[in-house]
Prior knowledge:
This protein is an alpha/beta fold and 365 residues long. The protein has twelve helices and 14 strands. The protein starts with 6 loop residues before the first helix and ends with a helix.
Amino acid sequence: MIPFVDLKREYREIKGEINQAIRRVLEKGWFILGEELKTFEQEFAKYLGIKYAIGVNSGSDALYLAVKALGIGKGDEVITVSHTFISTVDAIIRNCAKPVFVDIDPETYTMDVNQIEKVITEKTKAIIPVHLYGHPADMDPIMEIAEKYGLYVIEDACQAHGAEYRGKKVGSIGHVACFSFYPTKNLGAYGDAGMIVTNDEELAEKLRMLRNYGSSKKYFHEFIGVNSRLNEIQSAILRVKLKYLDEWNERRRKIAKLYNELLEDSDVITPIEKEWARHVYHLYVIRYKNRNKLQQHILRNGIQTQIHYPIPVHLQKAYIDLGIKVKLPITEKISQEILSLPIFPYLNRTEIEKIAMVIENASNS
C-alpha cells in the first residue's frame, strides 16, 4: 500500500535530532511557556520576515484568537471562503460574528478577489483569505480592498508554510496570520500546535495574554482569555523541523513537477502555479469528473487518497442549521471533482510513477 502520508519516514531521517530535542526539554523540567517556545517564536518570525510570533495550541485556536483579538464579535461580518477546512469559518462563528462566503477561483481554488466588494456591507470587519493546498491567495487586490474599506485581513496560512506571494512569505502580508502545525502539515508537530504572527506590537501583546487566561502576570487577569499555549516539547520538535522546511518544500515541488509531467496526457486536471506564486504543495489536488470511481480504482491498486474537501462549509449540516444559505457554483462543482494524491517529502519516484500510471490508465479508459 502506498500511504497518503508517511510521517515515520520523516522521523527516521531526523530521529537523532528529534530525540535530542525532546530529551533537552525533559532534562530541563520546564514544559509550558519556556525558552523553547520563546526561541521557536523568534526563529519562526525571522523565517517569515515578520516581527512577532505567538505560539498557541492549534491552528484552530490561532484563527479563533486572531478574530477575537481584533475585537470582532456579535453583529460583525467576516468575508471568507467555503472551500476550506471548517476551522476557518468556526473561528468566526465562535466569536459570534457572521461568515459571509464568496466563491473561489477555478484555477487556484483560493478566494475569487472579484467577488469581495459585492458582499461588503457596513457590518463587514475583516477578510480571511485561505492559502489553500499551499498556493497563496491573490493578496494585492485583497489588501487594496481592505484598505479602501478599512477592513482587517487575517491570512489563513495553515496549509502554506514557506509559500510565497510576489517574493514575500505568506503570513507576512495581512494584519495578522495563522499557521497550523498539525502533524501532516509541511511543518508539523507531533500533536496539535499553532502560531499567530503579526507586525503589530499591541496586537501581539494582546494575543500573548489571550492565550494565557488574559494574563500578562501570574494570577492577574486583565480580560477573559483561554488556555492555548504551544508547549515546550512541541516547540523543541518544531525548531528541529524548521531547519528542514525549505528543503522539504523543494522536494514537494519536485514531486508535483513529476506528477504534472507524468499526468500530462491523462484526462485529469492537474494543479497550477500562478506566475506570482510559489506553491509549496501541502496537497497535490487533481480534478476529474468521475472522481469517486477514480478514487475507488486507485484504492484497488493499493494507493491511498483523500478528498479536501468533499462538502463545502456552507453545505455542512452545522451551518445549514444556522440558517446560512448561499449559492457558490464553483465551490460546489469542484468539491465533486477534487482528489488529493499522496505527497510528502519522502515519497519516492517508483511510488509516484505507479500512482501516475494507475491514474492515466483509469482516466483514459
